[in-house]
């Protein structure tokens, strides 16, 4: 296996933590004191079946399922979890073997063996659910077992990123007796082997987690139970935090609430502020008569003022982004700024007139109301204002809740729509590969053959990821030239918590997924 420590960044709250209010987050704790820790978020699962989700549902999966590999607190590369060991066993990064820990069981006592791992991976590709994670397994040819504890992954091409794929919650191991090989589960039951069991679940409201006594892995639970409450907006969530109805908030904090916490407006709350790799971007649907025209897409890219969005809407709690690959990852470039420079209406007008477009372009922009935070609607109003102020566009805004929003873009209903991306794993590959090809994460086929047929295969054959910079930069330039995707901003990660809760700065893995087992209550000062 290659040395990933050379290029991975410990994102979120590890690299640049600052405690804005409250006391230190580090102290001893008694995991049985004062009941479950209650965590608030605006990111509710879209499904409880790992084979059906390539989205924020992973937050829950990480805590109730296991994967062969995962990230212990402080790790910057995947480490064994359900596995005892994993490694490439050839020189071409095409055969990857994992040996399971002995005596593994699911929460209900059923054995977790090599057959269960094979079943879990195979059903992802067999079901191939719309919006599901099958696209992550593009380099996998077949899965083989040897006895009860050994799993061999045969790849169809060299892929040094495959260990990262296995570490994503998409590859959660499920019980073959409870998860059909050909269809998704539709109920609210979960049979996993993670640090917690899902005791109960109310769709869109809450998930109640209790300790799993059968768990065997690296996680050292610092609490006995966690309840996750799902909110529609930041203000309601923060009010619940102030009223001590919840202990921690994560994902979806609005800029106004972040600023208020930064300004020390309360003495009994704390804010963990760390670098993030989540991004926001626009997607153009090539089936739409206007969005399919390169001149229209490039004119939008030329007019959009990312700095104004970051400052006016998000109050500088996010940073302008000029590439689909965020800052902090090896291979990041500023390709959109290099090609377009500052926003310019005259340049955009020339792009359109050169293409024979002389009247305002009608565009309909879609966004989701309950996925990426309370500012999403304000951001789209600002984008509408910018585009219409140029005199080059007339814009209609439309929105839907996430669950129906996903269905809409998968069916190709939206001419232009907004998406956010939290990385599957911290590599530039993961900010390019999911968005291109016939089966991508966006539901809009994007046959970028220069990327899919040359640049990605070439870079994945390189075990030293620091040597992939040239390929990643070229891939980003292809995205700029096509302007099918327009990056807007790169976020930061904020965890707000009551001052009696510790572990927030240790609870985020390199994909900024919260490991709930790291949270605990303080018992000493």
Automatic annotation (TrEMBL):
The keyword Signal applies. It is found in: Cell envelope. Residues 78-440 form the Solute-binding protein family domain. Keywords: Signal, Transport. Residues 1-26 form the signal peptide. Pfam families: SBP_bac_5 (PF00496). It comes from Streptomyces sp. 900105245. Belongs to the bacterial solute-binding protein 5 family. Coiled coil: none annotated. This is ABC transporter substrate-binding protein. Gene3D superfamilies: Dipeptide-binding Protein, Domain 3 (3.10.105.10), Periplasmic binding protein-like II (3.40.190.10). It comes from the Bacteria.
């Amino acid at each position: 296996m290659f040395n990933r420590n050379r290029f991975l960044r410990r994102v979120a709250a590890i690299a640049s933590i600052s405690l804005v209010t409250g006391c230190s987050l580090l102290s001893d704790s008694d995991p049985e004191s004062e009941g479950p820790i209650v965590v608030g978020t605006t990111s509710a699962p879209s499904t409880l079946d790992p084979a059906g989700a390539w989205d924020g549902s992973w937050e829950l999966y990480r805590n109730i399922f296991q994967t062969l590999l995962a990230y212990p607190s402080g790790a910057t590369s995947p480490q064994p979890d359900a596995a005892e060991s994993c490694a490439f066993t050839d020189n071409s990064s095409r055969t990857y073997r994992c040996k399971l820990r002995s005596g593994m069981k699911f929460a209900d006592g059923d054995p977790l063996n090599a057959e269960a791992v094979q079943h879990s991976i195979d059903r992802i590709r067999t079901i191939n659910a719309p919006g599901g994670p099958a696209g992550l397994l593009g380099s996998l040819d077949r899965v083989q077992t040897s006895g009860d504890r050994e799993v061999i992954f045969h790849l169809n091409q060299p892929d040094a990123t495959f260990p990262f794929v296995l570490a994503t919650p998409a590859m959660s191991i499920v019980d073959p007796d409870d998860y059909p090989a050909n269809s998704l589960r539709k109920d609210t039951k979960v049979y996993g082997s993670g640090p917690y069991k899902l005791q109960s679940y109310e769709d869109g409201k809450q998930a109640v987690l209790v300790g799993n006594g059968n768990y065997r892995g690296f996680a050292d639970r610092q609490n006995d139970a966690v309840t996750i409450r799902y909110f529609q907006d930041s203000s309601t969530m923060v009010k619940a935090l102030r009223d001590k109805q919840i202990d921690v908030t994560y994902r979806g904090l609005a800029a106004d609430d972040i600023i208020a916490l930064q300004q020390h407006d309360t003495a009994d709350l704390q804010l963990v502020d760390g670098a993030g790799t989540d991004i926001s971007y626009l997607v153009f649907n090539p089936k739409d008569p206007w969005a399919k025209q390169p001149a229209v897409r490039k004119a939008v890219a030329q007019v959009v003022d990312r700095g104004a969005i970051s400052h006016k809407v998000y109050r500088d709690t996010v940073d302008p982004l000029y590439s689909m690959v965020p800052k902090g990852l090896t291979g990041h470039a500023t390709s959109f700024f290099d090609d377009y420079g500052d926003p310019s209406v005259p340049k955009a007008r020339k792009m359109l007139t050169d293409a024979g477009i002389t009247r305002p372009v009608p565009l309909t922009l879609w966004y989701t109301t309950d996925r990426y935070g309370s500012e999403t609607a304000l951001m789209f109003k600002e984008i509408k204002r910018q585009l219409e102020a140029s005199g080059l566009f007339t814009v209609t805004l439309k929105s839907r809740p996430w669950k129906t929003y996903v269905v809409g873009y998968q069916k190709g209903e939206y001419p232009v729509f907004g998406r956010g991306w939290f990385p599957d794993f911290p590599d530039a590959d993961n900010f390019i590969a999911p968005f291109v090809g016939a089966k991508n994460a966006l539901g809009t086929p994007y046959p970028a053959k220069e990327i899919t047929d040359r640049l990605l295969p070439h870079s994945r054959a390189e075990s030293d990821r620091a040597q992939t910079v040239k390929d990643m930069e070229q891939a980003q330039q292809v995205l700029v030239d096509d302007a099918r995707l327009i990056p807007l901003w790169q976020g930061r990660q904020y965890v707000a918590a009551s001052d009696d809760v510790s572990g927030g700065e240790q609870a985020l893995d390199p994909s900024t997924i919260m490991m709930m087992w790291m949270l605990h209550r303080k018992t000493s000062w």
